[in-house]
Amino acid sequence: MAHHQEEKKEFNVTNLYYLVGLVFGLMTGAVLEVGIKWVIVGGILGLLTALLYVTVFVRGREQR
User: Taking the chain, what is the end-to-end CA distance rounded to the nearest angstrom?
Assistant: First the structure.
């Protein structure tokens, strides 16, 4: 039982990047005011941008 209490859950910052990408992508699609499909497209593009950011710029930061 003592072993379970010693384990700490670390905050995963990578999920925060995906959340921010999704939210701002949805907001950008909503600002276009073309239709609901562009809100969805904006969310997908926001997620893809966050994925690109994580794989290119954030990769290897844990090694420092």
Answer: 34
Does residue 29 contact residue 39 with C-beta atoms inside 8 Å? yes
Q: Which residues contact 47 (CB under 8 A, 6 or more apart)?
A: 18, 21, 22, 25
Return the residue matching tokens 């997620």.
47
Amino acid in position 52: L
State the DSSP H helix or E strand holding residue 50, giving kind and residue range, or none if neither: helix 36-53
DSSP state for residue 62 in the 8-state scheme: G
CB 23 within 8 A of CB 46: yes
- Across the range 35-59, mean pLDDT stands at 90
Place of tokens 């990047």: 17
Q: What is the pTM of this model?
A: 0.70
